[in-house]
Amino acid sequence: MATSLAYVIQESEPQLPLLSDEVQIDPQTQLQREVQTNLQNEINLVLTKIADPELREISQTILGEMLRFFDWLARIENNLHKLDTLLESLSLLEVLEFEARSLTDYIDAKAIKAAAGNERLHEVLDGISYGITHDLRRIFERELVRGVTEQSIPLVYGKILHAHGLLTNCFQQSTITLLQVFNPALDASKLFNDVELRLQQSLILCRDLASLMRFVRLAQANGDPDVLRSVTVRILEFRDGSMQYLMYKDWRGYESLALEVITAIENNLDPKPLLHRFLCYLEVLYGHVKMRAVLADDFPYSGGEEEL
Questions:
Q1: Which residues of 42-61 are buried (b: 16+ CB within 10 A; e: fewer)?
Q2: Residue 143 pLDDT > 90, yes or no?
Q3: Quick one: angle between helices 30-48 and 53-79, nearest 10?
Q4: C-beta neighbour count of 108 within 10 angstroms
Q5: Could you give the CA distance from residue 111 to residue 238 in angstroms, rounded to a whole number?
Q6: Chain-centroid distance, C-alpha 66
Q7: Is pLDDT of 9 > 50?
């Protein structure tokens, strides 16, 4: 019979309160310290380039929050090596959810309005808010990280690991896109020292986009109900999986077109015009992904676009 996490926690450590702002979390590994130092230096450099005091203030606030988020993610990462700290990791995730929702409230209520005269910054802030909200909903509502303490230890460990990966990617992409507004030459892969990880994510994205395009072409040529149902399954699988490796600005476009296709199929409408539009969109995405710098060795004409 699977061991309950709640039982193990009761035997090993007391219930931990949510962390307050005064709690200091120092990343434990040298690599984590180096990443944090490099990130702080890059943030300081970018802030000196922002002439507008209001834009500098909102950028400093958002980037400062991201630094705190990375501190907490570093502690969760280190805790994953010790099963008796699973409850602490769940508490950290609860803190991250609350703080990240507060950050999106700040972005929506103040930052986006302040950036009204800067189209690029306005677009990035809107994408950051959308992306963070999307991942928080996925982690804490659809995948039910909250309330898992009665489940088996391996399942809880897996959910914490998955949530950590999603949030890490989410906050890294948010940080990179904001920094690149003011420093377009920023090398994202070097900033977080994760070239190999970004390479693997981009390869997965290329593979899954290519697979999805094949299914859409098949559905265009064969309108059999079973084929159309398989396309809807693939569309949803991509949304819940590899879509996280796309840039935030592409998430909303994908979800909007995907919803139109799925709605047409489920209501027995002619989906072919929508499938054509969806396929064209996927082809554009695929072309952009292949241009990422980390894929230059895999696709000879890559390297013309920064990777996120």
A1: bbeebbeebeeeebbebbee
A2: no
A3: 170
A4: 15
A5: 31
A6: 13
A7: no
Give yes or no for a contact between 254 and 236, defined as CB atoms under 8 angstroms apart: no
With a CB cutoff of 8 Å and minimum separation 6, the contacts of 67 are: 36, 39, 40, 43
- DSSP 3-state assignment of 258? helix
- Rounded distance between C-alpha atoms, residue 104 and residue 55, angstroms: 16
Query: Considering the chain, what percentage of its residues have pLDDT values greater than 70?
Result: 81
Instruction: Name residue 62's amino acid.
Output: I
pTM: 0.69
| Cα-based angle 209, 242, 244 (whole degrees, multiple of 5) | 125
- Name the one residue in this structure whose structure tokens are 């819940």: 240
Report the range of poorest mean pLDDT among 13-22, 74-83, 236-245.
13-22
CA 285 to the chain's CA centroid: 17
CB atoms within 10 A of CB 256: 10
DSSP code, position 246: S
Tokens of 153: 């230890």
What does the block give as tokens for 49? 């380039």
| Cβ atoms 181, 121 nearer than 8 A | yes
